[in-house]
Amino acid sequence: CHSSPLCLPSRGAGAKMHTTQKDTTYTKIYVGGLPYHTTDASLRKYFEVFGEIEEAVVITTGRRASPGATDLSP
Q1: Verdict on whether the full-model pTM lies above 0.70
Q2: Confidence at residue 66, expressed as pLDDT on a 0 to 100 scale
Q3: Does residue 7 belong to any structural domain of this protein?
Q4: Are 31 and 13 in contact, with CB atoms under 8 Å apart?
């Protein structure tokens, strides 16, 4: 985990894919339980190994673990 720009803990964090049957041009992945120091850039870099990232956003709530979302191109 230390060599990665974003370390997702084995417990507490989770990712859920969301696709619609109408639109197959991208896949949105919601990621919960992100560390407080996670940035849009580090979230993007973490998921780039899976494909082109259209958007990576960390929602800052002021809480310790914030949610985020990424959009992957097919």
Answers
A1: no
A2: 62
A3: no
A4: yes
